[in-house]
Every structure is written in C-alpha cells, then in structure tokens.
UniProtKB/TrEMBL annotation:
Residues 13-211 form the Elp3/MiaA/NifB-like radical SAM core domain. Transmembrane segments: none annotated. The lineage of its organism: Bacteria, Bacillati, Bacillota, Clostridia, Eubacteriales. GO terms for molecular function: catalytic activity; iron-sulfur cluster binding. This is Radical SAM protein. InterPro entries: Elp3/MiaA/NifB-like_rSAM (IPR006638), rSAM_sf (IPR058240).
Amino acid sequence: MDRYNVIENKNKREIVLLKAHPCVWGKCSFCDYIDDNSTDEEEMTKVNKEQLDKVTGKYGVLEVINSGSCFEIPQDTLQYIKKVVVEKKIKKLFFESHWCYRNRLQEMKDFFGIPIVFKIGVESFDNDFRNGFLNKNARFATYEEVKQYFQSVCLMVGIKGQTKEMIKKDIDIVLKNFDYATINIFTPNTTPIERDEELIEWFSKEYRFLEKYDHIEVLFENTDFGVGD
C-alpha cells in the first residue's frame, strides 16, 4: 500500500496515510477503510515513522490521514509528526476528524502550534441519507453547525439511493460556504453499498467546471491522492 505522496496540482502538499487505532465510530455502511486500523502500537509506530521520514517540507504543507480521525493516531506518532513539522518547516497541516470530536479540535491546534485545516466526511448534508442510509452518526442539522468547526468537507457521490437533487444541494453548500472540499466518487468495495454509474456519468458532465476551482478536489478513484490501495 502506498502511504506517501506529493500532490502537485491543486493545494500543493505532501500527504501521508498513517496507521491508527480503531475508528471511534467504525459503523458507516459504505466504509471498509477501517480495515487499516490496528491495535499493535509497535507496528503503527514503525509504519508511521517510515512514512513521515519521507516528508521533505517541499511545499510547507502536510496532510495527515488515517482510517478514522486524527485523535486515533498513537501519541508516539503525534509526537513524531510534531518533530517533522519543526524540522521540515511545515507551516500548515490538514487533519481529518469525525463529528464526535468537534469539541476537541483546539487540542490539536494547541499541540502543533501551527494552522490546521480540519476535514470532515459529511458525505452529504441530507440528514436522512447521511445518518439513515450511510450511518455516519454525524448528527448536525445544518451546514452552519459544521462550518463552526471544520474548514473542509468531504462529500460522497455515486451511491444508489442518492439523487441528483441531493448532490446539487451539497455542491451548492460547499461552493458558497467552505474553504476546501473533496468530492469522492464512490468506489465499490467489500460493503453491500452499490455504485450508481448513471449518477456518476451525470455528475461528471454536470460538474466538470469544478476542475477550475482550486479549492475543490474531485477523486474519481479512492487512490487519486496517490495513497491507499
């Protein structure tokens, strides 16, 4: 599995995919990403150090992702990230977090002492689809609540049961209200969730203009950031 890459197009940055403790929720109906979780501290420390040692500081920006939230990254690894931040002169970090950690984000900001962009996988702002069908357990009522805590949102597109109207509303919210967004085209995996090819084809044509937006990244494959399997 590739765990380090340099993103050279939009939002130039280095990215590392680290191993971490099990996701605090781990019950999303579409996700088998959590299979990368671990409880072996020694293994996690070894794998994570190997990847973090590849960071050069080329753009002064580092994105750290894992199969869950940044709060599940082992403490030893967090300390090592901080060491890398200082040595490689990293000026900005990107981290991911589940909604349930929203009141702890300041802890990470205080620990690292540099600006952090927090990403959240909302998948959709349609509450019934997000929590009822996708089982995200992200129980906010409006995008304004999300905006209070997170600067970047991740949306999911192309799942059977999703509609064009949902997607239109989601994209509209993102374009008007968030500094960054990642739109993930659903890739079939080991879960029962099905991909909607017709919806994806429509999205690809309808929203081709998103290529021009520097703050919007569309991933047609879940490895388009150059990490993962």
